[in-house]
């Protein structure tokens, strides 16, 4: 490398480093806000420093992949990438016991059965009865599943990508995939719209308004632990109501994949 080109390379590297530092300083409050928001719903062994570090990596990835021609603001795009990076880091830790996953599935299946029998929203006492446990045991199951259900619900709500959010593979989605995503969005929106009012409000306050559990409890005049239970029950209810749609959709995808081009 010649002297002029070496100087040019060093200048470019220095400028890039300064740009990254400026980006981190500008959006550090956003990373911190998302980290503390998630921490309130995660087990005690998850450290805020780990979330912050993962979030900063997500911020830098957002800078690399952002396309302002897609219509989304950088802050909105970065927020999704930051949150996703934090959740990916938590998932790698594999901190959710299998028993918790089994409990979550049992709750969803119980809700599905009760609502199929009654044709109306499954109440806490009805779900507990279907599980053949006491109401206090049911609430304990909900509290134990709150962390795993947080991840599942966030994945559920973020499956459809907002305008400007490129797919991780950077490959264009096929027309079939786009159609299936649109149908899933419609099914999800309908399932959320049919939630009990209190559960729907918890979703709105947590995901749309960015309130933490304590703040939501103050709005609803209930304890923070009760908000945890409502959030977990809400996620289980959505999973139960979308299971039929998911099974039917997977079946149609398999049928279409068997067709050979003429």
UniProtKB/TrEMBL annotation:
Localization: Cytoplasm
One annotated GO biological process: DNA-templated transcription initiation
Region (Sigma-70 factor domain-4): 191-239
Keyword Transcription in annotation: yes
GO cellular component annotations of the record: cytoplasm
DNA-binding region: 213-232
GO molecular function: DNA binding; DNA-directed RNA polymerase activity; sigma factor activity
Keywords linked to the UniProt accession: Cytoplasm, DNA-binding, Sigma factor, Transcription, Transcription regulation
InterPro entries: RNA_pol_sigma-70_dom, RNA_pol_sigma70, RNA_pol_sigma70_r2, RNA_pol_sigma70_r3, RNA_pol_sigma70_r4, RNA_pol_sigma_FliA_WhiG, RNA_pol_sigma_r2, RNA_pol_sigma_r3/r4-like
Signal sequence region: none
Domain RNA polymerase sigma-70 region: from-to ranges: 23-95, 105-165, 191-240
Residue ranges of the region described as Sigma-70 factor domain-2: 23-95
Record bears the keyword Cytoplasm: yes
Placement of sequence motif Interaction with polymerase core subunit RpoC: 50-53
Family designation: Belongs to the sigma-70 factor family. FliA subfamily.
HAMAP family assigned: Sigma70_FliA
Function: Sigma factors are initiation factors that promote the attachment of RNA polymerase to specific initiation sites and are then released. This sigma factor controls the expression of flagella-related genes.
Name of the protein this chain belongs to: RNA polymerase sigma factor FliA
Source organism of this protein record: Ventosimonas gracilis
